[in-house]
Amino acid sequence: MHSLKSKFILIAVTLVLVPLLITNLFQYVIVTREYASTIEEKNQAVASSIASSVSFYIDGAFDVVSEIADEPAVTSFDRQVQRSILERAVQRNPEFDLLYIQGNDGMQTARSEGVVANRKDRWWFKQLQASQTSFVSKSYYSLFTKQPITSIFVPIADGKGTIIGSIGADIQMNELQEVVERNSFGKGSYSFIIDGEGVIVAHPNKQYVQEMYNLKQLTKTVWLKGKNGQELTDEQGNELTEEQSIDLSPELSILAKRALKGETGTGSYADSSKERFVAAFKPVKLPGSSERWAVISVQDEQKAYAFVYDIQKKVLWLSLVLAVSASLAIWFSSSLLIHPILGLVRFMEKAAHGDLTHRSQYKSKDEIGQLTASYNEMMDRIGSSLKDIKAAFSRVFSASNVLAETTQETSQSVTEVANSIIEVAESADEQSKMMQDGVQVTEELRAVLRQACDGLKMACSAAEETVASYEESAAAVQSFMEQQVLRRDADDEAADALGSISRKASLVHHRMKEFTDLAHDAAQAALGEEAADTALRRVAAHALHASRGMQGLVEEMNDELNELQRRMLAASAEASEHAEAANMRSNFEQLAAGLEPIRSQMISASVKLGQAGDKCGQLSAMIAGIATVSHRASDTAKSISAETQQQAAAMDEISHLSDSLNNSATLVAERIRSFRI
């Protein structure tokens, strides 16, 4: 029931069958109701017709009896005349079975037939005497005919209106029985008449009449019979009867009671075999003080509605044929209508599995044709879109591969940058350590230079003292020189030597001061924020140059002091030869002695300057190492810069690839948005 064809057939059959069933049901209800009304009207008409016949029959008989009771011959109570009148009346009115006249004592005076008798003990005589009015009796057994009868009783009055007797007429029920039988149509449709007590007086089933079925009491009255089959009577001649229950419908009894109350209507009941009957009842008003009679017309419901049932059966068969025909037509139509749709369903299922090559060949201008055309157009657009999507995603895939490779290269570059940064950090650590060592060497060099400077200061002081002593001796020598011209040249040379020594000592002192300042600058540069490489190189070059210059000066001063000491000793030897030169000798000896500590200081200064030169060499080596480390750091920084540029270029390429991917994604999104989902 999940297929469209099944649903379509179900809906179409429902649309056909439901109205058909509703129409049949409505028709059945309406027709049944209308036909029920017709049946009721028919039964009511039959009942009314029979009631009219009964009323006409009884009224006619009653009028005849009343006319007889009013005749003067009857009121004279001449028996022969009365008998003659009664016989002629029976002959003229065959509805009478027996006519009889009796006095107020109950003794019959005349009969149309039979022997007169006393009827004072009969129920009807007692009622007549009590009521003094005419009436039609209930059903009772006739002693004359031994059959249930109904009688008309009319009082006889004289000219003064005094009741002097009564006349009775036993009515033959044959006429009423014929009327009932004429309006009966078999077992299922009949009518019957009941008297004022509910006793059936005419019925197609004569047993009901013979046994006096009472619908009010649901009993029957049976005349008892003797062993010889003769009906039994009591001492007064009245029949001996017995009341027996009967199996009739209580619903029918209710209808009978309603009719005897004067109601006219219809109803239904079920008999002992559960068969349903429809009934119509009509009361019959009788003359005098008589109780109402009633006519009930009944009809077997099944037979009454046989025409409706037959029509309905035919309609049902016709509806069934129409339903089957409509179902076949619907099935055939649905096959024609659903076939292209089922084709589209199969194509859609194949499309759902990725096969977009199928197209519907159904051509029509109806909605299904429009659907197939839309399907074909949709498949074409989907195919085109998928091609565009495939191309776009191919570009995306290529861009993704390039992006992956670029990302891998970027990762490698980042790794190399990280390694370079580690190397730069290690070089920086090494450079920092070497800078600390350079600072330490600079401090040591500064201390050595200070010691050398102090020694040179002492040497300069000693030289100055020696110069002063020499000037004092020069004055003494001057006179001596004047006397001895031969010594003059030597003295001049000595004086020149001392002057040269003094000048060189001053120059050494000046160089030592510069060297000390340079060492201080080197220490500050090593500890400050100035570029260590350039500063240390400059300080080391100046320090090495100054150290070498001072060492050369000290060596020259040492050589000159040795020469001067030699000359002083020679001068002292010559001065010892002359008395006048005694003082000069002493002076020269003092000069020679004074030159000794200068010489020692010079030697010490030379040693110190040598040590300073070694320190300068160490400092130069350290600075060279720092320069090497700096170059390496610079090269590493350049490498990092280059790799960073490569990484930036890679990132630019990634950005371009991202733009390409974005454009492709936008194209795919636009293609997807072109469909209504």
Automatic annotation (TrEMBL):
Q: Which UniProt keywords apply?
A: Cell membrane, Coiled coil, Kinase, Membrane, Phosphoprotein, Transducer, Transferase, Transmembrane, Transmembrane helix
What is the protein's membrane topology class?
Answer: Multi-pass membrane protein
Entry keyword Metal-binding: no
Q: Which stretches are annotated as coiled coil?
A: 547-581
Q: Which reaction does it catalyse?
A: ATP + protein L-histidine = ADP + protein N-phospho-L-histidine
> Which EC number(s) does UniProt give?
2.7.13.3
Which compartments is it annotated to reside in? Answer: Cell membrane
Gene3D superfamilies xref list = 6.10.340.10, Methyl-accepting chemotaxis protein, PAS domain
Please give the start and end residues of each transmembrane region. Answer: 315-338
Q: Which family does it belong to?
A: Belongs to the methyl-accepting chemotaxis (MCP) protein family.
Protein name, entry field: histidine kinase
Q: What organism does the UniProt record list as the source?
A: Paenibacillus taihuensis
